[in-house]
Specification:
- By secondary structure, the chain is of the alpha+beta class.
- Helix content is 37%, strand content 19%.
- A five-stranded antiparallel beta sheet has the order 2-1-5-4-3, sandwiched between helices.
- The radius of gyration is 15 Å and the shape is globular.
- Belongs to the TRAPP small subunits family. BET5 subfamily.
């Protein structure tokens, strides 16, 4: 199992943080363009799911899977959007994203007096703690191609 990359967006679609670990294929476009495409796709999928679901989608869209990767999604009550791309064998990713939000984002970003909501996170401490958190998770690993 492996983790490829992570996007963190605010409720307005601003990319607050991006990190990657085992990503082997680059998209060929800038990170900003890739983030805009990712956010737009999430917006569309959420809208689609809410309209066609036969049940009341309380949790809404959680993930989608292709034959090559899975995109996992967590939206917090404040509108933050965590998007984690993994291989298809990754399990319990929702719990991982919830812990990432509570143990890393809240501790090292929300409580940082130098961070202003809606701005890119530049804290090296946050980046280090996020990297440690992801690398110690059971789904982190080097992809065997």
């Amino acid at each position: 199992m492996t983790i490829f990359n992570l996007y963190i967006f605010d409720k307005f679609g601003t990319l607050l943080h991006y990190a990657e670990w085992n990503r082997t294929k680059k998209s060929g476009i800038t990170r900003e363009e890739e983030a805009k495409l990712t956010y737009g796709m999430l917006f569309s999928i959420k809208s689609f799911v809410s309209k066609i679901s036969p049940y009341d989608p309380k949790e809404g869209f959680l993930y989608y899977k292709t034959n090559r990767y899975a995109l996992h999604y967590l939206e917090t009550p404040s509108g933050l959007k965590f998007v984690l791309n993994t291989d298809t064998a990754a399990i319990n990713v929702k719990e991982l994203l919830q812990q990432m939000y509570a143990k890393v984002w809240v501790e090292y970003v929300v409580r940082d007096p130098l961070w202003t909501p809606g701005t890119v996170v530049t804290s090296e401490l946050f980046q280090t703690k996020l990297d440690e958190f992801v690398k110690q998770s059971p789904i982190f690993g080097i992809r065997n191609i």
